[in-house]
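F.,

This is the one I mentioned.
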């Protein structure tokens, strides 16, 4: 038996990076996975990787900033797998910039995807979880939900909102079997960081000096975050809700 055997799991932003690794890890442990991403081709690539090794997955193209598309994504899980047990609100954008130069579009997009996307996901999944007597929601925030960095004020604001959204949801449903926890990863090697790295002098320069801000001395790997997603999705964490789980190679310890 896998650690999430037979559980219906929805992972957003699962066409790349942490979301893809999480979808794969959940499927390895018996999860039935809806692989959701705004990039449908990338979502289908993740599904191919899962099904090639005998896992169960289906792709959905979704913009998590659109509430109707999010409803349809959750409906797909219920239709395909009979329920939704696990929701991983992972999709996100990071558009770095100097505060007084932020455009209306960048502000709106960051908050629509990183904050409203998680709100829509919870709103849509929770009625099904209440009906079936429980579920596990995992929001992916960032260390920037706890501490900020140069050029990341807006991103940090969105991730701080994710941390507090998680705590609020956890409180409201604690007695109804719905758990809600948030993961705060440090610097993980994925494309979401490339624009920020450019502003800091390029990815090579950032990685050459990563010791200065991430004591473990290297970027994290998506699968290292996926292990924590799996842990929170599984029944091993039935007493955990409202927890802020930092997985950051020591970054916020200094
Ligand atoms: N990589 C890091 O260092 C790091 C650190 C802390 C937190 N995070 C968070 O982890 C999450 C995943 O990021 P990642 O590092 O895997 O990046 P990534 O760029 O590899 O993956 C992000 C995925 O989200 C998808 N996406 C973007 N907007 C979307 C939308 N509106 N609807 C649906 N899908 C959308 C993208 O197409 C992409 O496949 C994000 O929330 C990010 O903020 C990443």
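My design for it:
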């Amino acid at each position: 038996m896998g650690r999430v055997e037979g559980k219906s799991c929805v992972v957003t932003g699962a066409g790349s990076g942490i979301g893809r690794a999480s979808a794969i890890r959940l499927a390895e442990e018996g999860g039935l996975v809806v692989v959701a991403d705004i990039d449908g081709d990338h979502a289908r690539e993740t599904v191919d990787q899962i099904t090639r090794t005998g896992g169960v997955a289906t792709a959905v193209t979704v913009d998590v900033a659109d509430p109707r598309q999010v409803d349809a994504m959750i409906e797909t899980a219920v239709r395909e797998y009979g329920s939704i047990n696990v929701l991983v609100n992972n999709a996100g954008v990071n558009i770095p910039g100097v505060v007084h130069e932020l455009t209306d579009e960048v502000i709106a997009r960051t908050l629509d995807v990183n904050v409203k996307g998680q709100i829509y996901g919870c709103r849509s999944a929770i009625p099904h979880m209440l009906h079936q007597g429980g579920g596990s929601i995992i929001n992916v925030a960032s260390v920037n939900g706890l501490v900020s960095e140069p050029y990341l004020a807006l991103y940090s604001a969105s991730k701080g909102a994710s941390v507090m959204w998680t705590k609020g949801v956890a409180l409201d449903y604690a007695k109804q079997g719905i758990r809600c926890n948030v993961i705060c990863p440090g610097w993980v090697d994925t494309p979401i960081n490339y624009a920020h790295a450019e502003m800091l002098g390029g990815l090579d320069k950032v990685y050459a000096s990563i010791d200065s801000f991430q004591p473990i001395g290297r970027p994290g790997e998506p699968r290292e975050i996926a292990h924590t997603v799996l842990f929170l999705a599984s029944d091993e964490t039935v007493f955990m809700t409202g927890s802020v789980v930092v997985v950051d190679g020591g970054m916020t310890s200094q």
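Residues 104-132 form the longest helix (29 residues).

Talk soon.
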